[in-house]
Specification:
Blueprint lengths: L4 E5 L4 H12 L3 E6 L7 H9 L8 E5 L5 H11 L3 E4 L6 H6 L1 H22 L3 E4 L13 E2 L11 H19 L5 E6 L1 E3 L10 H11 L2 E4 L5 E6 H14 L6 E4 L2 E4 H12 L2 E4 L10 E2 L2 H7 L7 H21 L10 H8 L1
Parallel strand pairs: 1-2, 1-4, 2-3, 4-5, 5-7, 6-14, 7-11, 8-10, 9-13
Antiparallel strand pairs: 10-12
Helix pairs in contact: 1-2, 5-6, 7-9, 7-11, 9-11
Length: about 350
């Protein structure tokens, strides 16, 4: 593969930092653009991203907000990326519902500006929508990219769908605009910026810290993918350099919340306890054949392999995790997290 240049919004985030680490390992150049809204320890994350990589000159960091259009545009023009990876919007239902005005500014207005920059400068754009847009499915079926989308139940999904519509309109007006939209399954696994509240990560933490996993809606399904497999999927697209469609599901596991917990129980020996519904309406499975067949993609990690990696890391870092009050690891207030993790 030729040497590429990746500009990443949310570069010090969960997906951005993992992608950056892999890109540097593969010999590419990376520019991270991040507002540090989650108070990340940037030096620690940068050290993890570049660990074992002598060419730190291939990595740049810009502390900036996507709402700062002048800084964003000048940064992109100066770096001259071969790909723009836009992962710098809010990535949790709580974050979006908690502040509708800010969500509109970041997830919609700023993202439309990102789309415009890429279209005008002819930079291929990777945008993450979400499998959560498939909502609460009344029957058990694996949703495809062309299946009807239900009315969104939260601002997170609403804004994802608004941006999908905006991108479709841009693409229709400019067929040469190179853009791909992913609807990833719930991402989990280890990253330089770990997110502890994502469902399998959350369950793994409870299994290690409390020896018990508490589960609501045992029979509700969720699609999931290990972050290492997700990153491998992105690089499948980059290696090919072209794609036939605009929107792709990408994931691996379609299992119930009880099955998520049982997989963790096998690894950790924890107990499983049912609790009342906590208000998460999602119940969905996704069909990823379109992506898998076009790009020859096959996720490498089994669910139990992923869980063991997460569990080993949490076991070795439990004192730090709890002693820091989950610093950097949450996309929700600490008070909300403490209500669901105990």
């Amino acid at each position: 593969m030729k040497k590429e240049r990746f500009f990443i919004t949310g570069g010090l985030g969960y997906i951005g930092s993992s992608f950056a680490r892999e890109a540097l390992k593969r010999g590419h150049e990376v520019c991270l653009y991040d507002s540090l809204i989650y108070e990340q320890n940037r030096q620690r994350i940068l050290d993890e991203i570049t660990e074992g990589n002598p060419k730190r000159s291939d990595l740049q960091l810009i502390i900036g907000d996507t709402r700062n259009y002048a800084l964003l545009e000048s940064s992109v023009k100066q770096f001259q990326p071969s790909y723009f990876m836009h992962w710098g919007d809010f990535s949790s239902v709580y974050s979006c519902n908690h502040n509708p005005a800010l969500t509109n500014d970041v997830c919609y207005e700023a993202t439309t500006h990102v789309v415009d920059i890429c279209q005008q400068l002819k930079i291929p754009l990777f945008y993450n929508s979400s499998s959560s847009v498939y909502g609460n499915q009344p029957i058990s079926q694996k949703m495809t990219e062309t299946d009807p989308i239900p009315e969104p139940t939260d601002l997170y999904c609403l804004n994802k769908l608004k941006i999908e519509k905006y991108i479709k309109e841009k693409k229709a007006s400019d067929p040469d605009f190179k853009v791909i939209v992913f609807r990833p399954a719930t991402v989990f696994g280890l990253s330089p910026r770990f997110r502890i509240e994502l469902l399998p990560n959350h369950f793994s933490y409870m299994a290690i810290a409390n020896k018990v996993v508490t589960v609501a809606d045992l029979n509700a399904y969720r699609a999931a993918i290990d972050i290492n497999d997700l990153i491998a999927g992105y690089f499948k697209v980059i290696e090919k350099g072209s794609w036939q469609h605009l929107i792709y599901n990408i994931g691996q596991h379609n299992i119930s919340k009880l099955e998520f917990a049982l997989g963790i129980q096998v690894v950790t020996g924890c107990k499983i306890v049912t609790i009342p519904d906590i208000g998460d309406l999602r119940n969905l499975q996704i069909n990823c054949d379109l992506f898998d067949q076009e790009f020859g993609f096959k996720p490498a990690l089994s669910y139990q392999e992923s869980v063991k990696r997460i569990g080993d890391w949490i076991s070795g870092n439990l004192e730090m995790i709890e002693g820091s009050n989950y610093s950097e690891m949450l996309n929700m207030p600490l008070s909300n997290w403490l209500r669901i993790c105990k």
